[in-house]
Amino acid sequence: MKDKSRQSQLARFQKALKYAFRSKALLGQALTHRSYAYEHPKGRIADNERLEFLGDAVLGLAISAHIYRKFPDCQEGEMTRIRSLLVNRQTLESLARKLDIGKYVLFGKGEAASGGADQSRNLVCAYEAIIGAIYIDGGPGKARSFIASQFRAEIRKVKQGGAQKDYKSILQEYTSKTYKATPRYTVVSEEGPDHLKCFEVAVSFGGAVRGTGEGKNKKSAEQDAAYNALYDEGLLDKSNGGK
Prior knowledge:
The chain is mainly alpha-helical and 243 residues long. It folds into 2 domains: 3-159, Ribonuclease III domain (Ribonuclease iii, N-terminal Endonuclease Domain, Chain A), CATH 1.10.1520; 167-236, Double Stranded RNA Binding Domain (2-Layer Sandwich), CATH 3.30.160. The chain contains 12 helices and 3 strands. The protein has a 3-stranded antiparallel β-sheet with strand order 1-2-3, with helices on one face.
């Protein structure tokens, strides 16, 4: 991709972010998939996985601090539940799609040909990498402001009581009534280094596997599997994040 074309792309993306990077190289790294870096070894291009690792931690801390301040009557268990309602793959994917982030990420030829720009894992990775990049570029305050702006609608839903159940709970209620059974979750695979683990989990009920999901830990993968099972059962609409 020509430099001028890429610079124009990054300028448009920064307008969508409502954040102007001082380091354009850092923004470029956040939007570089490892497949692209692998195909350009001579250019010594850095991919976004390290920034994703940082962004994941920054996001978790920022949301946890917000919950601590805004929900003073909640105990630890309830705070954990609220955080899981706010920080999950479905929410992050939805926010990434609103930014049209897949259009700006650089992919290798094989990854691009296989639809990498539309794959949930890649979108979430890039989204968290952007948070990590903003943290390095502008500091903790800018990162917190970005996160607060991005999650404002989701936080409002939780405060208004519009997101009181997680997907596993909803699925269990549904299967108990419809199938007279409890969903069973099985780990299908576990890949990646410790700081970038990816679990794949399958959920079964009614004598068959009804959904699979991915996550950075077993709990989030189970939530994703439950979400996909509910969608396949016709109980959720993915176009609006399952709400």
